[in-house]
Design brief:
The protein is mainly alpha-helical. It has 12 helices and 2 strands. Strands 1-2 form a two-stranded antiparallel ribbon. The chain is globular.
């Protein structure tokens, strides 16, 4: 970024004055922006370079000299102004987001038990590694977060929350992509329609990725976190791949239970903000990428508002996967993109106006 500095000079009669003028001009051309040369007046123009301060990046463990723009605009696309999202996000109202509740679907079959056991095992390992412990009473609003011990190993601050969010969202987009990919290949092999499942699963994966990109605007992970994400994604992808081939319904139930935990996690974080335990986030504005994706209105673009949107997304994924886990994957249509004979009757949709936390039973929608 360049600015123009204009200084006025009148000629000097002495050689000493001319020498001073030459030295001052050379100093100015090498980046010096101010100098004093009384009683001389200068009339020339020089470009002065000003280095802009890079945007603030919160809660990063990486040195400032290594910070980089994760998704800069395309360098070789002069005709492109902006690339928007392929899937436009439905509009959520504040009332709808505030009404999201913590819920749990009781196990009914052996596949439900297997799915829940796997979620609890993964949850235990993740919580132990990241120093986190759920306080259900705080998340559900029945206990004041201020009464918890802020000096314990399990106490959360802004940085620990961001580390946890980045790691979780980096693997949360895997199940939808695996399910959509396998159903796509299955449709090609059998030369039959998929009945609308593929689009919903891919959109879910896309939505989880947008959560990750939003948090990456606030914190850049270090090399250790990147290695953890690489390993977790490799193991999780292959596990989901083979599991979905064996039992798609069990996989959807697994994701449904996983999203129950996500809703609980974000509810706990929102409770911490309301209790004043995360002071750096009280007035922190949401990144621009989040404002555009969720169409966040003016006056509702704080970090708390952002977490409300993300929690609502997780609650929607909870509903979708519990519902898909109740259906016959080879023959039933996707109820979230279907048109109903009686549109006045509550039914599944892409929004959260008729959200059902534990999913829709097959008899209700098919």
């Amino acid at each position: 970024m360049y600015a123009t500095t204009r200084i006025t000079i009148t000629p000097l009669a002495s050689k000493e004055g001319a020498t001073k003028l030459s030295q001052a001009a050379q100093s100015l051309c090498h980046g010096s922006r101010t100098f004093s040369l009384a009683p001389t007046r200068v009339a020339c123009t020089f470009p002065v370079q000003r280095h802009t301060v890079p945007p603030t990046r919160h809660f990063t463990s990486t040195a400032r000299t290594q910070l980089k723009e994760y998704f800069p605009p395309p360098a070789n696309a002069p005709n492109i102004k902006l690339t928007g999202p392929a899937w436009h996000h439905p509009i959520y109202t504040e009332k709808q987001m505030e009404s999201i509740k913590i819920a749990h679907r009781e196990t009914k079959t052996w596949s439900d038990w297997v799915a829940l056991a796997m979620v609890r095992l993964l949850r235990f390992g993740m919580d132990t590694a990241t120093g986190y412990r759920h306080d259900h009473e705080v998340a559900m609003g029945r206990k004041d977060p201020k009464t918890t011990n802020t000096r314990s190993w399990f106490a959360m601050n802004e940085r620990k929350w961001l580390v946890r969010f980045v790691f979780l969202e980096s693997v949360a987009g895997v199940p939808g992509m695996v399910g959509g990919m396998l159903r796509h290949l299955h449709s090609l092999r059998r030369m039959k329609r998929d009945n609308g499942w593929i689009e919903t699963l891919l959109e879910e994966a896309y939505n989880e990725r947008m959560h990750l990109l939003t948090f990456l605007k606030m914190a850049e992970p270090g090399w250790f976190m990147k290695l953890m994400i690489l390993g977790a994604q490799g193991v999780f992808f292959n596990g989901m791949f083979f599991s979905y081939l064996i039992s798609p319904r069990t996989c959807h139930r697994f994701v449904g239970y996983l999203e129950e935990e996500a809703v609980l996690t974000y509810s706990r974080c929102i409770a911490d903000i309301d209790a004043g335990k995360l002071p750096k986030w009280e007035k922190l504005e949401a990144p621009e990428i989040a404002v555009r994706y969720w169409n966040m209105p003016e006056g509702h673009r704080t970090m708390r508002d952002l977490l409300l949107y993300i929690r609502a997304d997780e609650a929607k994924h909870r509903e979708v996967n519990h519902t898909l886990g109740n259906l016959e994957p080879k023959i039933d249509p996707n109820p979230f993109v279907s048109d109903y004979k009686d549109p006045e009757k509550p039914h599944p949709s892409k929004g959260i106006e008729n959200i059902k936390p534990t999913g829709w039973e097959r008899g209700e929608v098919i």
